[in-house]
Task: structure prediction
Amino acid sequence: MTTFTKVQQNFGYDKYQMLDVAPTTSLREIINSGAAVTKFVQGVDGQAGSGKEKQAFAFGTSDGTDTLATLRVANQVIADYGLDTVDAAVNGLLEAYNRLTAELISQFCDISGDRQRRYGTPAQMSMQPMDNYAVPFAQGVTSGYTVGFPLWRAGIGLQWNRHYFETATTRELAMQLTALLTADAKWIQAQVKDAMFSPTSYAFQDFQTDGALLLVKALANAETGLQLPVGPQGEIFASTHNHFMYPGSGNGDTLATYTSNAWNAAPTTGTMTADVQNLIENVLEHYNDPTAKIKLYINRAQETQMRQLAPVFQPLYDPRVIHSITQDIARGALDVGSIADRAIGLFYGAEVWVKPYIPNGYMFCFLEGGGVEPSMMIRVPVGAKTEGTAASGQVTLQGGDLRIVSEFQMFPMYAQAAERRIGVGVWNRVNGSAMYLNSTTAYTNPAPFTF
Result:
C-alpha cells in the first residue's frame, strides 16, 4: 500500500514529502526531484515474510531493489539483473507516479468514470399573491442540460522483447522510463490547458465505447440558450455572460466594460489592477463559500508586472529576510528554489501562483476546495483491473493510470507499449475564468498545446 505524508506550506497548500526529501509541487518535480513515497511489502526480492520495508521513489535514491536509482547504479544487462526484479521496480514506480499525479491534478479536476453529467440551470419559482380561497399555480423547475467528457487513448511504443532484455542495460531502461513519464506528464498538461483556455464547445464521438456523440462544453462562453446556475443571492446571469476575458472587456453581463491597455503595451498599474480584479470577481460572484481558496495562476513572464500592483498585491518573501513593520506582506514563505512553480503572494484575497503550464500572456482564476465543484473533470475508463504475477507483485490499476501494456500477463515485461486513457472536459462552467492580456479587442485562444 502506498502512503503519503502531507506537509503544509504556503497558505496550507498540500504538498508531499518523505523523510528529508523536499516537497514536490508539479509533475515536472515528480520527474526530476526524487520525491519519495513509502511502499510496504511483505517480503524483499520475492522472499515472503521478511517484513522488511522498502522505498519506492518517483525518481531518487534508495536501498530497495524497486527504484530507478538502483537500476541506474546496477548498470547490468537486464536479463542478468533479473526480469522479476525489474518488473517489481517498474510496478512500484508507476504506482507512485500515478498516485502523485492524481493528487496534483485534483486541485481543479474531478476524476470520474462519468462520460456525461447534467449541469444546472436556474431553479426559479415565483411567490404568487393569494386571497383566502386561492390555490397557487404549480410551477416546474428545469433540470439543466448535458455536458460531456471526452476519452482519449495515447501511448508510446516500447518494444520490450527478448532481444532487448539480452542487450539493454538497467541504466538504459531507467532512461527510457524517465522519458516515458516526462511525455505522459506533458500530455496530461496539454489536455488540462486546452480545457482551461479554449472558448469553444465541441462534439466528441465516444469511439472507445458505443460511438455516442457527447457535447463537450467550454467554460461560460456566452452560448445562446444555455443558462448558468443561479448566484448565491439569487442572481440570474444573462446568456451573454462570458468567462473568457481581455483587458477592459468586462464579462458581457455583470461586469461592465472599461478603458484599459494591453499588458505588452505599457499598461499602467491602475489598469492592470482593474484587469486582475475583474478576472477574480468574474468567478467570485458565483459563490459565497468562505472555506474555498481563490487561486490565480499566472506565467512567470507576468510576475514582475504583478509585483508592481502594490498595495493590492501583498508579496511573499524569503523567510530569512526581516521586513519593515510599515509594509504589508503575505504570511508564508517564498520558495526561492522553484522560480517557475511557486506561490508569490496575495491579490484581492487570491493566492497568486506562478505555474509553468500557464501560457505567456494569460491568467486563470478558479476556486479550490470548500463546497465548490472543480472546474474540470478528468474522465477515466470505468473499473479497475489487477495486473502482474504473484512472483513479481500484483498491482491494481485504477482506470486512467499510466500502464505497461503486455500481450501476455504471465510475462508482463514483454510489452509493446505503454498507454494512458483519459480525457479532460469542463464540468463546472462558472468555476474558472481566463484572461488574454495582450489585446484590448478580443480574447485569443492560445496556440494548440503540443506534447
Notes: The chain has eight helices and 23 strands. Residues 1-66, 386-397 have pLDDT under 50 and may be disordered.
